[in-house]
Amino acid sequence: MTNYIFFFLFFLNLYSQKESPFENLNFIKNISNTNNETYKQELDKLITEEVSEIDIIKKQILVAKKYRDLKKIILLLNRQIEIEGENPDLLYQIGGTNGILALQKKKFFFYYLFK
What we know:
The chain is an all-alpha fold.
């Protein structure tokens, strides 16, 4: 009987917690083809600018956040860490982005599991 109570309390605690602090409420967003084209055009504009590589990466991260391209954000943050070195803020951003991506995949998994 004690095992059942422990099991119940464990899952009650697990699923009663608030959502991840990294999750944005409108975070699963369908992007139309015109937005994809606009996104690519904005990235191309940033690459052609005559500024340092780190400034280009920071601007690309902002554009990728705007269009919710999580994989691109992770790649750019990794590149920024290679250039600047490890920084707690950058590692926190990578962790948050990976958390959002994992949460997104988890939701899709449960959708197909119980469909």
